[in-house]
Amino acid sequence: MTTPPTPADDAVTDARAEAGAVPLGRRLRDPRTLISFVIPILVVALLVVALPGFHVEQLPALIAAANPWWLLAAIAIYYLGFPLRGYRWALLVRGTGFPLSTRDSTEIILISWLVNCVVPAKLGDVYRAYLLRVNYLVSLSTSFGTIVIERVFDLIAIVLMGLVAGYWSFRSGLSPEVQAIFLVGIAVVVLLVAALLIVRNFGRRILDALPIPKRIVSMYDLFEEGIFSVDRRSLPVVIVVTVAIWMTEALRLLFVVEALGFSDIHLGISGAIFVALIASLLTAVPLTPAGLGLVEVGIVGVLTTVYGVDRTEALAIALVDRTISVLSVIVVGGIAYVFSSKTKAGRYRAGLGSEQAGG
Asked: Which of 114, 208, 248, 301 shows the greatest Cβ crowding within 10 Å of its Cβ?
């Protein structure tokens, strides 16, 4: 059962609400946001110009020749992932006692992804917890807990699926670069599992042993409730849905490669999974919006270094793939942001509170 929000939690909510209620237009005009866009674009442009093998003048023709049906298939499979993500998050929130619908959770996730695409530091996750709080009065700490455990499932799935796909792709022999990636992936999984075990078994004991205010402990209890919101009955479903979500990411990349029709590239499903999951792992680095710059360099680097893809063709793949996964989200998510009633709930309640205080 979801614990009612505490005064401390409400105080934090007010602070987050003030940050989250800033219109996206103002966020985009913020110098820090502009810098987070411009710098990675300049870095990628400089790399393309400085490194040999890139023929930028060929990119328009390569992209224009793409098969539109394969591109539509890539877009469709990508957006199938959003209701899957919505269903999984709804399961996690329901585990805390609140009956969130898949439709509502999908809408909130799409809007939060818009924020992640235009603002750095993964503020879309903060905004997602904020929308759940102001629309459904679910504790902010609990909301954050469900998002954290969702991210843990994602990272573990990325690593394990990437390992399996990588071993299948490189069963004839692993290059030093691939071995290094595998070692990093294994370390990530071990650290995540260890962190969950520590939180589950010793988190509250550690806090009780420290001179921490009770309101912080209360917020931690709500946060832990969100993290461990998955019960044994729904855990298999969450695992299956998580795998399905990341298969949509891999199939999107595979369909993009098919659309561009490069005859010398034969990734196969295992190669597409490996490259797509490496790219997704880079989006977790909260330095730029949606990993802008890092992901493009990562995709091109893996395709050229590991799979021997021509640099210009690899860059074309990265640009088309990121157009679908970032630019289209800005368009579709922007429409959802403008017309969704959920983005207006916080402002409505703030106005109502001011009227009551004035009255």
From this structure: 114
